[in-house]
Amino acid sequence: MRAHGDGTAVALEQPPGEPVADGWVWLDVQVEGDDVDDVVALLSNFDADALSVRDAVEEHDLPKVDDFGHHLVVILHGLRDDRVATYEVDCFVNDRYLVTVHRAGSTAIDAIWEQVPHSRALATGDVDELLARLADVLTRRLMGVLDAFDRTSDDLIVKALEADERLLGELLAVRSDLNTVRRVVNPQREVLDVLRTSTSPLIGKNGQRRFSDVFDVAKRTAEGLDAARSTLAEILDAYRGAEARDATDVTMVLTIYAAIMLPLSVIAGFFGMNFANLPLSSDENGWVLVTAAMVVIATLSLGIFVALGWIDRPSGRKAGKTLGRGLIEAARAPAQLVGAAYEISSSPLRGVARRAMRSHTEAGEDT
Fold it and tell me: How far apart are CA 257 and CA 309, in angstroms?
């Protein structure tokens, strides 16, 4: 694309064969497959550093800026459309040319490319201002991850308060997405900081001012990602608290259940002794009296717990559900203890294996 000094821009069929006298030329190159040599040959006409060109095509770098005097190499990152991942855009800048190289399709580049011929404001200015506009769009798309997180954080909080077991998997997925963006936002902020304070003649006053605005966007994005990570930690704490509350409820039910059954077990054990002269052992209605006494004791115990406020008067469905969970936890306890004992007994072996691997690694490094 070619922009003239009067603010008009037109698309070019092929790169100009001679240096432009006014305005600038923007050449966008999307690398496909293994056509590395073709891209290197194309950029050699712009007097770009050959090693930087090969790095741009063959390697994946974090955002950075290199000043070669007569041209700059600026590496920026944008957000993909199909998933939460970033792609690299390598920018080669001199006083009349901007060459962008990328492998993945870039929505940001396509948007600016389509609007430059129709917007006089985008076609005016120098190459550094065009680069700043591109950096602005790329960085603001990274900031869009925070908007998506704000929309999902309320649902995560609700699931945390309900102790939803699916929450942990969702938290790990969200944390992974945030780390993916955070990994490139901080270096990109440093790149923008370098460009807004650059003393290179390729970055003018207007370019520095635009890069300062983009730096503020990157700074807010980085701070928002840090705040989002803190929010995830708070959601995890809320989940643990809700889980502990549920565990406390289960423990209380089991305790009350055991306290009610304890005197009944004592009575059953007493009359279950194999002696001939036990009270009521020869009475035909003795079992009725003992059963009635057990019912009275159980009812009195339950009434005392209700009077003390240890238990409410829940519905039968809720009480049955809570009691069922308590019994399940009680049944799982032996298996959990056995698993814990197995882990404790096997952990020294894992430690020995880790030490052995570490020693082999150190030996390999020494070699």
Answer: 15
Other beta carbons within 10 angstroms of residue 60's beta carbon come to 12
Lowest model confidence (mean pLDDT) among 45-54, 153-162, 197-206, 281-290: 45-54
Distance CA 227, CA 212 (A): 22
Cβ burial of 228 (10 Å; 0-12, 13-18, 19+) is buried
Please state, as a whole number, how many other Cβ atoms lie within 10 Å of the Cβ of residue 264: 15
Task: Please state which of the four CATH numbers 3.40.50.2300, 1.10.3720.10, 1.20.58.340, 3.40.50.1820 is assigned to the domain occupying 246-366.
Answer: 1.20.58.340
Q: Tell me the average pLDDT of the chain.
A: 77
Are 52 and 182 in contact by the 8 Å Cβ rule? The answer is no
Close Cβ partners of 145 (under 8 Å, ≥ 6 residues apart): 79, 84, 177, 178, 181, 225
Position 364 confidence tier, pLDDT thresholds 50, 70, 90: very low
Instruction: Give the least confident one: 5-9, 175-179, 361-365.
Output: 361-365
Asked whether the beta carbons of 119 and 9 are under 8 A apart, the reply is no
For the chain, report the end-to-end CA distance as a whole number of angstroms: 54
Q: Two tokens at 326? A: 């308590």
| Fold (CATH) for 2-240 | Beta Polymerase; domain 2 (3.30.460)
Residue 331 DSSP one-character state? H
Best CA proximity match to 105, nearest among 3, 30, 40, 19 = 30
For the stretch 227-264, pLDDT in tens is 998 998 999 898 888 888 777 777 777 787 888 888 88
